[in-house]
TrEMBL record:
Ranges that cross the membrane: 45-64, 139-157, 177-205
Domain of life: Bacteria
InterPro entries documented for this protein: FA_desaturase_dom
Protein name, entry field: Fatty acid desaturase
GO terms for biological process, alphabetical: lipid metabolic process
Matches recorded under CDD domains: DesA_FADS-like
UniProt entry tagged with the keyword Membrane: yes
Name of one Pfam family that matches: FA_desaturase
Length: 306
């Protein structure tokens, strides 16, 4: 059954004016990005760059859900050039909004963000590919090879769509190219070597894989598929409180800085809604799943009759 949504309209469902907290954070993020390029050399500058790139990705997620301006065009102007290089914003927007069809969460075909595979497809895979995907199903593997696995799969799917005549997918990639050229041009003029910048982009994706690693699980009920991680540390900030993920899915228009208070005010209701799919912190996630898979790669509840 589809995830239940609150029937009570929240007072901050849609921004009626500029959300200055988010806009200020975007300005700080871009300042850190520029500062890392000026500083350029050494591990501290590299770490600051990774921090800024992760934060920018999280801000891009805020933008596609309607923040910080009432105008979508004004909001998207902040993030349409992706300093993280690998993912076109327009493709991220379209696939992520498709992912928000909660009835399809974890569907191997209709959820574009799932890592589950149709068991029939899994059985036909070469053993090498299955081995890679098993490694990718541990947190350590997701951080190490996950960005590459996801990028290859993402680009292959988009290439198939482009060849089939999907103009919207093609447009997303074509409009991404000038931004990539601009970012690489700025990097070439900076003190940071290109190799260091590219490794920082990969590392940022690795950090983001911590967030997405167990956001969703296979469950008979759609409402039981989305996690709560009760963390308020550095990772929660970098992910803009998306660790309160069921709250975000139930109220996707709520800005990131409202999610913790909303969760605290209705904690029991959210945990009942998601069937108790909860972790106490990201430290618990690392302890339980760094070297152990959360679940199998083939969807454990998938039926060939679907």
């Amino acid at each position: 059954m589809p995830a239940r949504r609150s029937s009570r309209r929240l007072p901050f469902d849609r921004p009626s004016q500029v959300e200055w907290v988010t806009l200020g954070l975007w300005a700080a993020c871009m300042g850190l990005w520029a500062g890392a390029l000026v500083w350029g050399t050494g591990p501290v500058a590299w770490a600051v760059l990774v921090f800024a790139l992760v934060l920018h990705a999280s801000l891009s997620h805020e933008v596609l859900h309607g923040h910080p301006f009432p105008s979508r065009a004004a909001s998207e102007a902040l993030v349409v050039v992706n300093p993280g290089l690998f993912i076109p914003y327009l493709r991220f927007r379209d696939t992520h909004l498709a992912h928000h069809q909660d009835a399809n969460l974890t569907d191997p075909y209709d959820d574009p963000e799932t890592n589950y595979i149709d068991p029939a497809v899994w059985r036909r895979m070469p053993w090498v590919m299955r081995a890679v995907l098993r490694v990718n199903n541990t947190l350590a593997g997701r951080m190490l090879v996950g960005p590459l696995v996801a990028q290859v799969g993402f680009m292959a799917a988009d290439w198939r769509a482009i060849r089939a005549g999907d103009g919207q997918v093609l447009r997303g990639w074509v409009l991404h190219v000038p931004g990539v050229v601009a970012v690489l041009g700025v990097v070439s003029l900076s003190a940071m070597p290109l190799w260091a910048y590219l490794t920082a982009c990969y590392a940022a994706l690795s950090v983001l894989k911590i967030r997405t690693f167990l956001e969703h699980q296979a469950h008979e009920r759609a409402r039981g598929r989305t996690v709560i991680i009760e963390d308020r540390g550095l990772l929660a900030f970098l992910f803009l409180n998306n660790n309160f993920h069921v709250v975000h899915h139930m109220h996707p228009r709520v800005p990131w800085y409202r999610l913790p208070a909303l969760y605290r005010a209705h904690r029991d209701r959210y945990l009942k809604s998601n069937e108790g799919y909860r972790y106490g912190s990201y430290a618990e996630v690392f302890a339980r799943h760094f070297l152990r898979a959360k679940d199998p790669v083939p969807h454990p509840l998938w039926s060939s009759d679907r």
